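=== RUN LOG ===
request id: a7f3
mode: sequence -> structure
chains: 1
length: 162
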Amino acid sequence: MNICEETVHLGIKYGNSMVYVETIEGPHAIGANASHFDLPIYASAIGRVVLAFLPQFELEDILNNITFESITPQTIKSKEQLLDEIQIIKENGFAVNNQEIEIGEICVAVPVFNNRNYPIASISVSGPAFRMTDERISFIAQQSIIVAKKLSLQLGSDSSLF
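=== RESULT ===
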């Protein structure tokens, strides 16, 4: 993922949160290392991309137990907003967090699937808003999908999810 030259995270679901289990700082990283912080699953791209590909019963269980809190003015504030975003993620194959966790930071995330096509993790690429243009977001999303697909195939997933 160094082709993106931004910070890359690997995250896993832990209850209604996402936890970074690995972080690789990009050469132009700005800010503190965010390893191991819990992120609300509804407010982060790394979480929403996992939500989008969960089995329906598991998604519903999580949705029924979320308390939506505004972290920034852009943070999703309702179940309806989240469901709309999940539909977009399913169509695109990736999620974007546009300053919903931290003002000035944009994050693009893709799912990683296991041999049962279950989203066991997600990979995200984060960068400052001034560098994350629409074109750059598209490039990062496509590069991230390539990496996630390769990793998922190595874990036994089929390629129909990408």
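=== NOTES ===
The two ends are 18 Å apart (CA to CA).
Residues 134-154 form the longest helix (21 residues).
=== END ===
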